[in-house]
Design the sequence.
């Protein structure tokens, strides 16, 4: 079983899971901006593993299938559980925030399961990809100094609730390809550096 992690693409995916857990840990420690900065690198890993998979010659079918499922679980951790814990950490565990966080995790899991069954025929998938929750979380945290503390937790929760709804909406979203990968990479690096600067680490 462990040997499948020696596959380049699967190793990148596994690295993304580790980064997501580190990000969650920073949230628990009360540094959500640092957590989001790290989560963006997990998002970057999510895009790089697909590129690595396509460029790995002679990849075994079993390894590829395990990689596909591992990727979905990685997305659930980074784009479902991480933002949910961000909500609970900032807004505290009230019935409303627990419900919002639970809906986000549930919608992420459903979206990923639906994608695993139906794929992306015609280069388009149904529902907003789960990974969009990470940049939304990062952008809201980046804007934190400009949002009154009284309203910040509400803005964060409402933003991620909107993402949760769009994940299960009948939208047709094109797959990231070509220059899209470059734009995602630039966004992840730039936003991560901005968040690190916010906490005095860049």
Sequence:
């Amino acid at each position: 079983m462990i040997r499948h992690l020696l596959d380049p693409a699967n190793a990148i995916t596994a690295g993304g899971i580790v980064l997501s857990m580190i990000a969650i840990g920073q949230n628990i420690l009360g540094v959500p901006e640092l957590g989001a900065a790290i989560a963006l690198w997990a998002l970057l890993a999510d895009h790089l593993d697909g590129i690595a998979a396509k460029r790995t010659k002679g990849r075994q079918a079993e390894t590829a299938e395990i990689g596909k499922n591992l990727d979905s679980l990685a997305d659930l951790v980074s784009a479902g559980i991480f933002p949910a814990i961000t909500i609970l950490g900032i807004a505290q565990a009230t019935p409303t925030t627990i419900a919002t966080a639970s809906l986000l995790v549930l919608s992420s899991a459903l979206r990923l399961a639906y994608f695993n069954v139906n794929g992306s025929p015609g280069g388009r998938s149904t529902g907003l990809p789960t990974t969009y929750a990470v940049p939304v979380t990062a952008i809201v945290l980046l804007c934190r100094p400009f949002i009154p503390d009284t309203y910040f937790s509400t803005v964060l929760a409402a933003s991620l609730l909107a993402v949760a709804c769009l994940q299960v909406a009948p939208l047709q979203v094109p797959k990231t390809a070509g220059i899209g990968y470059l734009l995602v990479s630039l966004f992840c690096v730039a936003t991560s550096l901005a968040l690190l600067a916010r906490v005095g680490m860049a």
Summary: The chain has a mean pLDDT of 94. Residues 144 and 152 are 7 Å apart (CA to CA). Helices lie at 8-28, 32-55, 61-91, 95-118, 133-142, 149-167, 179-198. The first strand starts at residue 124 and ends at 126.
